[in-house]
Amino acid sequence: MGVREAEGSMGRAAAGVVHRLTERRETLATVESLTGGLLAATIVEIAGASVVYRGGLVVYATELKESLAGVPKHLLAERGPVDADVAAALAEGGRQRCGADWGLATTGVAGPEPQDGKPVGLVFVAVAGPDGTEVRELHLDGGRDQIRGASVTEALRLLTEHAQRSGGVTAAAGGGGRGGYAAE
Question: Which of 48, 110, 124, 133 could form a disulfide with 128, with the two C-beta atoms 3.0–4.6 Å apart?
Fold first, then answer.
C-alpha cells in the first residue's frame, strides 16, 4: 500500500469512528507509543472530532508508559513495552486519565531495527470501553511509515468493531459520555 492509499484508509477509518461516537454520544482518548501522535492527528483531521475526542498521550519512552498512562511498573519490567497486556493497560489508562468512554492505544516496533528481541512490524492495538478491553496483535510489513499508518488504521478498525458489538454508554441509556456533551 502506498502512502496516499494509507492516508485515505486512515482518514476513512477515523471518519467512521468520529461519526459512530458522535451518534452514540460517546468520547474517545488515545495513548500512543510507536505511532507518536499520528493516531490523534488522524482523528482530529475529521470535522466534528472535537465533539468526541477528549485528548491523548504520546508515551514513546517506556518510563512514561508507567508515569503518565498508568501501566504497572512490574508489567513493563517483566514483558517490556511491546506486549498485549501493556497495550490493554495503555488503553485503559488513557480512558481513565482523560475521562473518556473509550481508550485506544498503540504499541509496537516500527523499525528499522528489532527492539528488545521483538521483530519489526510486531504491533499491538487495544481498545478499552464500557464493556471491557480488547487487544489485537498485528504483524505488519513495510517501512516505518507503512507500519505506523497501518497501526493507526487497524486501531481505528478495532474500535469500530468493538463499538458495534457493544451496547455502549448512550445518552438514551442515561450514560451520555464522560465529558463531551451538555445535558439536553
Answer: 133
DSSP state of 119: P
Alpha-carbon gap, residue 103 to 54, rounded angstroms: 10
CA dihedral angle for residue 130, residue 136, residue 141, residue 147, rounded to 10 degrees: 20
Report CA 16 to chain centroid distance, whole Å: 14
Terminal-residue alpha carbon distance, the chain: 44
| 30 contacts 52 by C-beta, under 8 angstroms | no
CB 137 within 8 A of CB 124: yes
**Which residues have a Cβ under 8 Å from the Cβ of 159 and sit 6 or more positions away?**
17, 28, 102, 104, 127
- Can you read off the three cell numbers belonging to residue 118? 521483538
User: Omega of the bond prior to 72 within 30 degrees of 0, cis?
Assistant: no
CATH topology of domain 3-165: Maf protein (3.90.950)
Q: Each residue of 161-178: pLDDT tens digit?
A: 999 888 654 333 333 344
Is 60 exceeded by the pLDDT of residue 153?
A: yes
Considering the chain, what is the average pLDDT of its residues?
A: 89
In angstroms, rounded to a whole number, what is the distance separating the alpha carbons of residues 5 and 8?
5
Q: Is 105 helix (H, G, I), strand (E, B) or coil?
A: strand
Query: How far is residue 127's CA from residue 134's CA, in Å, rounded to a whole number?
Result: 5
